[in-house]
Amino acid sequence: MFKRVLIATAVSAMFAAPAFADVTISGSAEMDLMYKTNQNAKGDGKVAEEVAVVVNIDGTDKLDSGDTLKWRLAQKVETPGRYDSFGQREAWIGYATQFGEVRFGNQFSNQYRELDGFASSGQGNLWADFGSQQVQYANAITYFSPKFSGFSFAGQYDLGNGRNSARAMELTANYMGYGFDIDAGIAEAQNNANASSKAKIFGGKTWGSSGDFTVGTGAENKLRTYNLDVKYKMGAFDLAAGYKRNEWNGDVELAVAGDKTAVDQFLLAGGYTMGKNNFNLGYQRVQDSKTDGAKRDDGMNVINAQYNYKLSKNSVAFAQVRHHMLDTAGNASVMTRTAQLDGFALNSDKKDSTRLLVGTWTAF
């Protein structure tokens, strides 16, 4: 610690009259009031409230070379579930040049951002939070390419334990033009002690935490995720279609035992905007899982509808309904977390689950 203080003092002494870099604060505040059915084995419902405030602190400094040094420090305060301190949500330093941008540190998975952004209006619980993809990389190195005629790509690598035995990597691409917004991605994570049906932080159980790997315990795993999402805007109408494939191999916490498990997902959505009013309707299909070649009757259909009303330039009010329909009662795909299905009791003999929600969201 003493040595670090001396280094910082020596560096700061180089600047007799330091100029301050540009710093901005942004974020969002969301309030949700909801009712959820089938929250226990008896089928009882539950009223719940969620308030989430995200705060981002971003800095930039124009270097003498013409390039830009960037950084972000972010947190999310969510009540009454958890408190995320500064840096757990995001904490990275980046360098932007004419050849692209490189970032180092705690970052979201680019594939997860694609999935979460595509599955808007309440469809992200199964599209982005259920699956073999990672949510966040605490020890990431990321490259973002410049745009070429509407096309761009990004590569991401998590150092894991510093050896090939535990690491994660992904490649994502995007094209925007002629009304289309197309995203594609492929990701692979290897030897994560916390691998399960829920998308998580690579190598960790909490935000910003990493380093919990299976290496040395005799257990191994490998997770792969593929996605292709297409949006098309035509006047006041928005249309979307997506495909995602989840693959789990080895020692993974799933609702079914085996060596190789795969689940395919499909999503169709449409929206219409009229003045301050926006209407959205979506359908999602989670196919039956396959484990070591055997199919399990655990698929489900999801219907989602949401109405948004623009309160101001930065704020919106919304009402949403989300309805899950299981092919077989008690078999909610390979998931082991009730939160992935709006708290629906996985041991229930019910086949349906519904969530009604009203709330507001504002950006700052």
UniProtKB/TrEMBL annotation:
One of its GO terms (molecular function) is porin activity. InterPro entries: Gram-neg_bact_OMP, Gram_neg_porin_domain, Porin_dom_sf, Porin_Neis. Residues 8-324 form the Porin domain. It is found in: Cell outer membrane. Keywords: Cell outer membrane, Ion transport, Membrane, Porin, Signal, Transmembrane, Transmembrane beta strand, Transport. Residues 1-21 form the signal peptide. Transmembrane segments: none annotated. Pfam families: Porin_4 (PF13609). GO terms for cellular component: cell outer membrane; pore complex. Its main location: membrane. GO terms for biological process: monoatomic ion transport. It is a multi-pass membrane protein. Homotrimer. This is Porin. It comes from Iodobacter ciconiae. The lineage of its organism: Bacteria, Pseudomonadati, Pseudomonadota, Betaproteobacteria, Neisseriales.
